Amino acid sequence: VKQGVLRVLLFLLRYPDVEIERCAALSIAALSLGSIKNKTEIMKHGFIAPLISTTTYPDKTIQRCAVLALNGIALGESTETKIGIYKEDQLSSLIALVKSEDVECIHSGIYILGTLAENMDIRNFFVS
């Protein structure tokens, strides 16, 4: 991932237009599926906090796109990515998705929480 691209995507993710934010989140999701190096770069550039924040927007489509990006970052063997997402807000925003009235948000929330629960520390958090 070229760093210039990540800076632009981070700017667009914070842009005050839901459609632009949606496209930025989907772009991040696509880049995160490329390699662990891409995931690490995405995390280093500070995408986790704005993506988690985006999961609380009233627009359900942007919520699902943000969760898709977060899940793309979390998927795989890397503990660093899962812990990075967990530490950002102790999963409260992601757990709130499971309580949504939107079925697709519920599915997305369960998917990301399941991916994160592959890490033993996060799994213990759920159990406690």
Q: What does this protein structure show overall?
A:
The protein is mainly alpha-helical and about 130 residues long. It has nine helices and no strands. The mean pLDDT is about 95.
Concise account of the structure shown:
This protein is an all-alpha fold. The protein is 76% helix and 0% strand.
- Helix count from the secondary structure assignment: 9
Rounded to the nearest angstrom, the distance between the terminal CA atoms is 38 Å
Mean pLDDT: 95
Run of helices and strands: HHHHHHHHH
* Gross geometry: globular
Compute the CA-based radius of gyration: 13 Å
Structural class by sheet pairing and helices: mainly alpha
The fraction of residues assigned to DSSP E strands is under 5%
Q: Main β-sheet, in a few words?
A: none
Task: Summarize the topology.
Elements: H1 3-13, H2 18-32, H3 36-44, H4 48-54, H5 60-74, H6 79-89, H7 92-98, H8 103-116, H9 120-127
Descriptive tags:
128 residues; mainly alpha; 9 helices; 0% strand
